[in-house]
Amino acid sequence: MMNKIKTKLGSIASLFALIACYGTIASVALLSFLGISVEIDEALMIKIVTVLLATALLGMLYSWRSHRNIIPLILSLISTSILMWVFYGTYSKALELLGFLLLLIASILDFRSKKKVCKNCED
Question: Rounded CA gap, 43 and 20, in Å?
Answer without folding.
Answer: 13
